[in-house]
Amino acid sequence: MVLAIDIGNTNIVIGCIDGKEILHVFRLYTNHSKTADEYAMEIKGILDFHNVKREMFDGSVISCVVPPLTRVFTEAVKLITGVSAIVVGAGVKTGMNISIDDPGTLAADMVATAVGALAAYPAPVIIADMGTATKMLVLDKKGNFIGGAILPGVAISMNALAAGTSLLPRVPLEAPAKSISTNTVDCMKSGAIFGAASMIDGMIDRFEEELGEEAQLVATGGLADAVYRYCRHKLIHDPNLILRGLGTIFEKNRKK
Beta-strand (E) ranges in the chain? Predict the structure, then answer.
């Protein structure tokens, strides 16, 4: 079994992967101040709850966009499983050609997400990864990662709107009954959810125009479930895409 960990700016997604099957998935809040021991205790507690034992793991793989936590989690994984984790980064095999200006600048989570999409869907693929930021990723018909766009995430945009104004409150990220809303709270909900869905639709239109063909469309990330169903384009919701990508990367780099 493989312990796959994606460390994001807001959440940490952890999955137990057995072959191609993801057996358990759980999330933690990202906390920069926790030590390796503290994270190890927290993760071990959850694994114990699912009756997952230390000896069941034969490997681990980590993607991280919070650099100070990379070492923390490699140490935590060693404490939990007794194995050394593969960290997605320079020198790690992905099986994917990265055709951007500087391939080394592509964040580990975006690499893993794209690898997961390439393994699961026919190219070309457009991925809307909705987390702290909304990342739009594009794989061309040959399966090459050719770029995309990064936009403010739904939650961070709404938090900024509430913080930067005197009268607008914080609202839950849920769709109102209609887009033309008639009170402040519903107007903000409309802007957040329908606005984000329209933004994704518009970016897909632009990407497909540049690709010269229609693409497979996939939605993933912690906030995707709140938004993707309101897009005019039909997107497949794949919440575990990054974990499958991490599993694929582990298999390509494990010592035989």
Answer: 2-7, 11-18, 21-29, 59-64, 86-87, 125-130, 133-139, 145-152, 216-220, 236-237
Place of tokens 């935590």: 76
The residue among 3, 11, 222, 6 whose CA lies nearest residue 109 is 6
Q: Where in the chain is the domain with CATH 3.30.420.40?
A: 2-87, 122-244
Rounded CA separation 140/213 (Å)? 10
The helix/strand/coil state of 125 is strand
The residues annotated as belonging to the active site are: 109
> Cβ distance 8 to 131 under 8 Å?
yes
74: which 2 tokens?
């490699």
CB 36 within 8 A of CB 46: no
The DSSP bridge pattern shows strands 125-130 and 216-220 to be parallel
Q: Which residues pair with 60 in a beta bridge?
A: 3
Q: Using one digit for the tens of pLDDT, what is the confidence trace for 155-196?
A: 999 999 999 999 999 999 999 999 999 999 999 999 999 999
Instruction: Select 2-87's CATH number: 3.90.550.10, 2.30.42.10, 3.20.20.70, 3.30.420.40.
Output: 3.30.420.40
The CATH classification number of 122-244 equals 3.30.420.40
Q: What is the pTM of this model?
A: 0.93
CA atoms within 13 A on the CB side of 96: 32
And the tokens for 172? 């839950």
d(CA 195, CA 188): 10
How many C-beta atoms lie closer than 10 Å to residue 109's C-beta?
A: 24
Q: Which of 104, 103, 105, 125 is nearest to 114 (CA)?
A: 125
The answer for residues whose C-beta is within 8 angstroms of residue 213's C-beta and 6 or more apart is 124, 141
